[in-house]
Specification:
heterodimer; A: 334 residues; alpha/beta; Rossmann fold; Alpha-Beta Plaits; four-stranded antiparallel beta sheet; 12 helices; 39% helix; 27% strand; B: 321 residues; mainly alpha; two-stranded antiparallel ribbon; 2% strand
């Protein structure tokens, strides 16, 4: 059985005496595992990462990385971990290469070693062509890759990724996923990442904890979580009018029915493909005509919806705000 | 396993982190040297326009006597000792000649006794070295605010580099900048006719740089301490504006303290700007008084050591996310 690399017990952070950002969370991450904290903005993911990476002091509880307490042995912890923060942190006036070397200096890595590693990392991240260009000329995806390279300069045993693809377009996002997957294989690291993209957690994480309002709602492998809400999800739309919930519930396969607006029903059931014709027949016998019917396999989105009662989409708007602020800042600098 | 080599590693991270952060700042201004030069413009303007036009020595110029109608002096003979008959007349041109000579001496002595040198330009030019050092050092706080806003500070804080290395790299950078800018001002002052004293030597120039280093260390530590928690550069601007003007005028940078009213002299006697400016003048345009110079350096050293200690200690607690 693999050892626990990250141990978190009742970790709590209260800001200004009243705002509870993280509320007594506990989890363990095993060696070589990729663990995801999944939740909307403001759920407490980044605060958790900040506590684990010694940037914030916990109000209560404790956490350790490779056996070193994040408060008592903060400097040792800092040397063992790598961080890829949510923000772009590279110095825009320096080149990509200069930035990586600077990161190496901050870890006290001798220059001859850090120079070799910098080239290796730039190659891995396919940034070699841009190594002597100022970072201000980099695109979002390139900046993110540079952040990854910086976070790896000290060959960390544990890598923290805070929203690694925030604000990137779909292609760039999947490219970054490939880089992360490759890193995980190549360096055999333990990874703790936060995200609010379900598909990201699904594709990268071995285990996921869903976090909402500072609390962990549930932990498990993506597969476990998906099967825990059972089966398939079917959306049935009939002409607006009577409530057919009880009719649907009487059908064998159906586990749960939730009426949404008007004639739309969310049905949780097993073997959706087999049940579909039966449901259509059943409704027709009672005089209801099915306008549309769709079956979807459960995704983490639905898991999130089931356990928190809210859709993840609520947070999209906040992201826009963050991005626009960042652009304003960059302009202010010029 | 890790803790064994821990102390050695800490020092290594400290030194290398310090060097990495310092060379980052140096690289930044090597890439945009124009910013560094622009900061020098204001003190240079003061030096050329104010320093040259404020020709205080000219107030008592002998030429003013030409506009005064000086009569002959007639002395009745019986007032003299021994008394003589008749009247002695001293013609006005003799009087004028004598007065002109005396006035030149008075003018020179007045300048020397008040300013320590015979020309105001030399006096002010040295004061402008203090001024650029104040500008550059007080602005060092701004860079920590930008690092915070642009996320760079976040990364640095998450690495093992000691907080003190972050502060010291900024302090050192401010000092190096100040020395560079001071050299420009001094070079220009030589071109415009600053008069060095006979005790000036190249060795003195090294001491000039040491004085700038000490003063800049103290002042930039203070302003970095103000900026540790700040996220708004406007606040920093306001603080800088609030302090620089009074710092300059409550010191001997523009005018000697001995002609100031008592209350202002009191402030000037504790203002570190007075000490660096005096040290710089002792080393360049004055006949060096070693006792005064020693006092200046003791004060500047105490200023640098105490404030950088305060800055570092505060950074342990307040330099956080």
């Amino acid at each position: 059985m693999a050892e626990d690399v990250i141990v978190v017990e009742n970790l709590t952070k209260i800001f200004n005496g009243s705002l509870v950002a993280v509320d007594h969370i506990s989890f363990n991450v095993k060696k070589g595992e990729a663990f995801g904290l999944l939740g909307p903005n403001g759920a407490g993911k980044t605060t958790t990462i900040n506590m684990l990476t010694t940037i914030l002091k916990p109000t209560e509880g404790r956490a350790s990385i490779l056996g070193y307490d994040v408060v008592k042995h903060a400097s040792i912890v800092r040397r063992l971990i790598g961080i890829v923060p949510q923000e772009y942190t590279a110095d825009e006036d320096l080149t990509g290469y200069e930035n990586i070397i600077l990161c190496g200096d901050l870890y006290g890595i001798p220059r001859d070693i850090s120079k070799k590693r910098a080239i290796e990392l730039l190659e891995l991240m396919e940034l070699m062509r841009f190594k002597d260009k100022k970072v201000e000329t980099y695109s979002g995806g390139m900046r993110r890759r540079l952040e990854l390279a910086c976070g790896l300069i000290n060959r960390p045993k544990v890598l923290f990724l805070d929203e690694p693809t925030l604000g990137l377009d779909v292609q760039t996002r999947s490219a970054i996923w490939n880089y992360i997957k490759r890193l995980k294989e190549e360096y055999d690291m333990t990874i703790l990442m936060t995200t609010h993209y379900m598909e990201e957690a699904d594709s990268l994480c071995d285990r996921v904890a869903i976090i909402d309002y500072g609390k962990i709602v549930i932990t498990g492998t993506p597969q476990e979580l998906k099967s825990s809400i059972g089966s398939d999800v079917m959306e049935v739309i009939i002409k607006e009018g009577d409530d057919v919930t009880s009719i649907l519930k009487s059908i064998d396969y159906v586990k749960e029915v939730r009426r949404r607006n008007g004639g739309s029903y969310m049905v949780r059931l097993e073997n959706g493909e087999i049940a579909a014709p039966i449901i259509i027949d059943h409704l027709r016998q009672k005089g209801y005509h099915v306008i549309r019917l769709s079956i979807s396999k459960p995704t983490l989105d639905e898991v999130f919806l089931t356990y928190t009662g809210r859709a993840m989409r609520d947070s999209e708007e906040a992201r826009e705000i963050v991005m626009s602020q960042r652009i304003t800042l960059r302009r202010a600098r010029r | 396993m890790i803790s064994e080599s821990y102390d050695g590693a800490k020092l290594k991270v400290m030194l290398q982190g310090f060097w990495g952060l310092t060379s980052r700042e140096l690289k930044k201004w090597m890439k945009e040297p124009i910013i560094l030069l622009m900061a020098v413009v204001q003190p240079i303007m003061w030096m050329i326009l104010f320093g040259k036009s404020m020709n205080i020595g000219g107030i008592l110029s002998p030429a003013i006597l030409d506009k005064i109608n000086i009569p002959d002096i007639r002395i009745p003979g019986n007032l003299l000792n021994p008394p003589i008959d008749g009247v002695v007349t001293i013609p006005n041109y003799v009087i004028l000649e004598n007065l002109k000579g005396t006035l030149s001496i008075i003018s020179l002595k007045a300048m020397e006794s008040v300013f320590g040198v015979s020309d105001y330009f030399s006096y002010l030019a040295v004061g402008m070295i203090s001024m650029i050092t104040i500008f550059t050092s007080t602005f060092s706080g701004m860079s920590i605010v930008w690092d915070r806003r642009l996320g760079f500070l976040y990364k640095v804080l998450s690495t093992p580099v000691p907080r003190s290395a972050i502060i010291l790299s900024k302090v050192f950078n401010a000092a190096v900048r100040s020395i560079f800018q001071s050299t420009i001002i001094l070079g220009l002052a030589i071109f415009l006719g600053i008069r060095f004293s006979s005790t000036f030597s190249l060795l003195n120039l090294l001491a000039v740089y040491l004085a700038i280093l000490l003063f800049s260390t103290g002042l930039s530590s203070l302003f970095l301490a103000f900026a540790l928690r700040s996220t708004r550069h406007e606040t920093q601007m306001a603080i800088v504006n609030l302090f620089t003007m009074p710092l300059m005028f409550t010191s001997n940078a523009f005018f000697p303290t001995k002609i100031m009213p008592d209350w202002l002299q009191g402030i000037a006697s504790i203002n570190p700007v007075s000490y660096i400016t005096d040290a710089l003048r002792q080393l360049t345009i004055y006949q060096t008084n070693y006792l005064t110079l020693l006092t200046d350096f003791i004060y500047l050293t105490a200023f640098a050591v105490s404030l950088s200690t305060v800055g570092i200690v505060l950074s342990w607690k307040y330099l956080t996310k």
